[in-house]
Amino acid sequence: MAVGGTITSVLAWQIEAGADEAVADAPLDRFAVASGRAPPSPEPSPEAASASVAANDLDSLKADFEAFDGCPLKETATNFVFADGSAGARLMFVGEAPGAEEDRQGVPFVGPAGRLLDRMLAAIGLDRSDAYITNILPWRPPGNRNPTDSEIALCLPFIERHIALVGPEVLVAVGGTAAKALLGTREGIMRLRGRWFNYSVPGSDARIPLRAVLHPAYLLRQPAQKRDAWTDLIAIKKQLADPGTPG
Ligand code: URA
Fold first, then answer.
1. 72 lines ligand 1 (CB under 6 A)
2. Within 10 Å of residue 203's Cβ, how many Cβ atoms?
């Protein structure tokens, strides 16, 4: 094979494996890291809980979270993606993690999945200004890989505090990863969607009705599932119109 062809196929292989962003000016010698000649990636640190609990408003939470160095994803992400929408909204969406477009713009749900989320909101007569939108993780996992349990655990105290500070009337977990993280369960999204949960706000007696919905990125791949998503959207609309214990 010609040299040009070899280089192209190596690059294609790297992109397929998720190495689709330049993350530093100089290469990192992974063999040196493994042999102990260079410092390994940071280990999970208990600082997460104390940093988040100290925040008494959204600006402080954003600053604390952005300054938090305990999650290795921060090293590879381009931007810290905190939230979008209105902080006073009655409806709060929590997705999984920024994708490529969100990482570039520093705003959640602005790529293809975000555009479908906007259309889902419009279907129940709402737009971004009627909602508050964030993610479990504020940094993009490289190549859009699934976040690890450890990355989620590290950032969980921040999203818990985030929810407490926003204090929505209805909480929507967008996709299985967000639903499992917030509900502390291993059950899959197909079992979690279609019903209401009572989310206990950590550190308070407050309870918020939580609905898990199919992720718009999944709906883009499986449009036939939009029927189920519609059922959940109607339930959310009903709950906003008639607050109280959902039934
Ligand atoms: N998927 C998510 O879960 N969150 C985003 O912000 C974008 C895509």
1. no
2. 11
